Amino acid sequence: MDNRAIGVFDSGLGGLSVVRRLVTLLPNENIVYFGDTGRVPYGTRSAETIRRYTEQDCRFLLGQDVKCIIAACGTVSSVAADVLTRLPVPAMGVVQPTASAALRATKNGCIGVLGTGATVHSGAFHKALSESERDVQVFATACPLFVSLVESGWIERDNEATVAVARRYLQPLIEQQVDTVVLGCTHFPLLSPILADILGDGVTLIDSGEACAKACAELLREHDALARCDEGSCRFFVSDRPHDFGELAARFLGRPVGECVEEIKWDGDEG
Ligand code: DGL
């Protein structure tokens, strides 16, 4: 048993799609979330910068005495997975659990992957999906504009701008007749209703949050580190605009978080 918190981080709001699932699946766990809102997006940056940010984010969470770390960010999980393997606590990203869920879901073996530019360029999802014994075809599309749309709160199902952008990004996947679409960026589950409307009933969306929360539960069980708190708590840290984060986080998590959001400042050479 270990009542210390699970550390979760992302470049911004997206990792909340993992927190939402974690809270449901593991209600006794404490969670410390860090959203690097001062430096979002990560997906348009070089691998070197993403790795440096990842090291700093993990250092911050380790300073909060977390028992494990989840990189709730497709970009970090794809580009800086090796940083996670060098941490002094168990750590995981979203690629493997999400790819496994997609392989279980697909019937026709045609899988679409939506991610940031860095994620698609890394080929990490493609590799994870192709390593299985199943014969699958993978079609990946970079959707960088989705990240800003989500961070701006343009997530309503009838938001015309977001719907138009989504149609454009999804068209190639519709043409390839994919039956499963991996939301390879943790920001994207916030757009699920819009994506589902466009793709239609025959296509299964794989939410990295759900797959990742299940894998985290397994990881904690393996390390005999599940918590026994009566009721878990969540604390949120951001590197900029705590108010904006709090407002959107509350909308997404379905409960007020204002009191629990704190701002941190990176020191001199960081940022
Ligand atoms: N939530 C992120 C991901 O899963 C990052 C988006 C970004 O910062 O570009 O890739």
Count, helices: 12
Q: What is the count of structural domains?
A: 2
Trace the largest sheet across and list its strands. 4-3-1-2-9-10
Do you know the CATH architecture of the largest domain? Answer: 3-Layer(aba) Sandwich
* Topology order in helix (H) and strand (E) letters: EHEHEHHEHEHHEHHEHEHEHE
CATH topology tier name of the largest domain: Rossmann fold
The assigned structural class equals alpha/beta
Radius of gyration, whole Å: 17 Å
| Ligand identities | D-glutamic acid
End-to-end span in angstroms? 36 Å
Shape: globular
Protein model, in words:
The structure is a single chain. The protein is α/β, with parallel strands linked by helices. The chain has a six-stranded parallel sheet with strand order 4-3-1-2-9-10, with helices on both faces. Helix 5 (95-105) crosses helix 11. The radius of gyration is 17 Å and the shape is globular. The chain contains twelve helices and ten strands. The protein folds into two domains: 6-93 and 210-270, Rossmann fold (3-Layer(aba) Sandwich); 95-208, Rossmann fold. The chain has helices at residues 16-25, 47-62, 74-79, 81-85, 95-105, 117-122, 124-130, 144-151, 160-175, 192-199, 208-222, 242-253; strands spanning 6-10, 31-35, 68-71, 91-92, 110-115, 137-142, 180-183, 204-207, 234-238, 261-263. It binds D-glutamic acid. D-glutamic acid binds next to helix 3.
